[in-house]
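User: I'm new to structure prediction. If I give you an amino acid sequence, what do you actually give back? Let's try with this one:
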Amino acid sequence: MMSVSEYANDVDKSIEEIFLLCKKLNINVNQEDDMLSDDDIILLDNEIENGTEDEMQEEKEIDEFKEEEFDDSYEEELEEENITVTVKNNNKSTKKKHENKNSHKEDRKDSEFEKQKKEMYKHKEKLQSNVSTDDDTIILYTEGMNVSDFANVLGKNVAEVIKKLMGLGKLMNLNAAIDFETAEILALDYGKTLKKDSTRDETNFEELEIIDDEKDLVPRPPVITIMGHVDHGKTTLLDTIRKTNVALGEAGGITQHIGAYQIVYNDRPITFIDTPGHAAFTEMRARGASVTDIVIIIVAADDGVMPQTKEAIDHAKAAGVPIVVAVNKIDKPNANPDRVMTEMSQNGITPDVWGGDTLFVNISAKTGEGIPELLDNLLLIADMQELKANPNRYASGTVIESKVDKSLGVVSTVLIQNGTLRLGDAVVVGNYAGKIRTLKNDRGENLAMATPSMPVSITGISESPSAGDKFMAFENEKKAKAISDERIAAARKKSLNTNTSVSLDDLFGRIEAGAKEINVILKADVKGSEEAVKNSLQKLDVEGIKINVIRSSIGAISESDIVLAAASDALIIGFNIRPNNKITEYAKEKGVDIRLYNIIYKVVEEMEAAMKGKLEPIYEEKVLGQAEVRKLFKFSKVGTIAGSYITDGIIKRDAKARVIRDGVVIYDGNINTIAREKDQVKEVKQGLECGITIENFNDIKEGDVIEAYEIVEVKR
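Assistant: Good question. You get back a string of structure tokens that encode the predicted 3D arrangement of the chain. For your 716 residues, that looks like this:
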């Protein structure tokens, strides 16, 4: 909040101009000391911005009109003088006209957006809070609650509650802890509904239970996730549906990070989440399934079920959502859809034509055959699910992807699962607060607001969230900031309590001769790729070596990364990024190795090959011999000397030794000295007698067996 005079100074306008704008926008202020609310400031900001842009737009249109008028008059003049215009000039003129048409089209879009934005701000009303209003029938359960606490929450006498518990066959006193299930039964008996306190806490909005009134719910578009094996046609299918070609820009033809898109079919929007195709993105596929309503598992008719197809089946089943199998590449001569049906049924997916509950649709993503039938079936399943959401409350949803743009800052792709997200809304994404500065759809068009099931790109967040993080909008920035601070503090506390290190030393291994651990700094282009690289290398099954990620982030390799790598003897892995010449030279100067990749399995292959050459040696125990203790000699300065007879092998000085009594090892240590005929010796062989002392152990008895052994390295 700020006063009228403060705002006027801030936007470099006179107080009179601000009063005129306030009057136009129905903002009730009379004096320069009157306070403007956050919503008032947003309205004024947009009005001033719109006014400036309108002036610029008018000037632009006048200039273009004059230019077109000049071109037309010049062509007419040429015609009058019978001057032939060359084909080249005609093409140039036609191109220019097309550019002008496209320019006008963009201008119209911008103009429509400005009108929508202006209208949205003018009529911006408070949405419903995501925390339900007080309900007398709901009581909250706190973890570790005892019977006395529960009775107080119920508003009942403790003795009465204990009696009820006895009726349930539970003998409990007032200090006994009561579990949630038992408490829920008692609550229902008193006409109350029991909820865990975490489901009502805005700070922990991942578990926050949002209860919508039936009258506020409206149908929402279905969210579809496409899964399947590499090269089975996921991206091509989505391209055919979207009439674009995303895969052309992807390394190796494999989609490198999640994209979310919305299309309109038969006047109905459908949202698609495109999960990357390589096995390294298992975690990303799981994340896609967690926000989806229907899963399409795509299987090539000429290839059948592959390992990643099985992964997709597991994720779809775990998500508990309907599955549709798209049998792709049926246009190929060797296509065999029946084989796909057989192999899928062997993996627990039985076709509907065989009496199962899974729809199978034969398609060709390349030619478009079967695509309308697939979309019709998706809408039919969506109708059966009766998918609904409440657009009248503050938005909540999930982060699909996030990256850092050099000019825009943090850019996050989010899927709105409930509520409406608007420009200027205060949000918390993951643990970080912000205010929605821009809102764009998957085609890059500006939006004033976005409704349920829409994937949108947002800016205005202070830090880059992780893909899969939840987000929620709040009434104002103050509340969002307070919740963000609490979440950051809680995350820090949890990290300390669970003793988890930010270095993630259980993930990676170090690639340098003689080291058991490889320090790694990981830099990637987007958050999803960063996480996928981590998870892939974490699953490398190479014993004895770890990878210690001492820094992991998105963005270009910086000088601070080089300094840290030099100080920590670390390797830098760059994924889908290129260091500039200055950084490359600095790395050479510091002796830091930078490895660059753009396909994840190449990272895994090279790391695995390097690690296999640097495995920790295998050691095994080699028994040297055994000696039987026949007589004991005790000396105050030396300790107990075991007069022994070597029954097997050889006993060496400084070898490891265990003392065995009645078949049980009672001590494991080292041989200290060996004496024979008053002389110290290095070893004694089988059939001879000697005196043996054990380091730090004197409790030897006659009849004990001393077994000497050593640890030797075994070649792999």
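You can read the tokens as a compact description of the fold. Here is one thing that stands out. The two ends are 71 Å apart (CA to CA).
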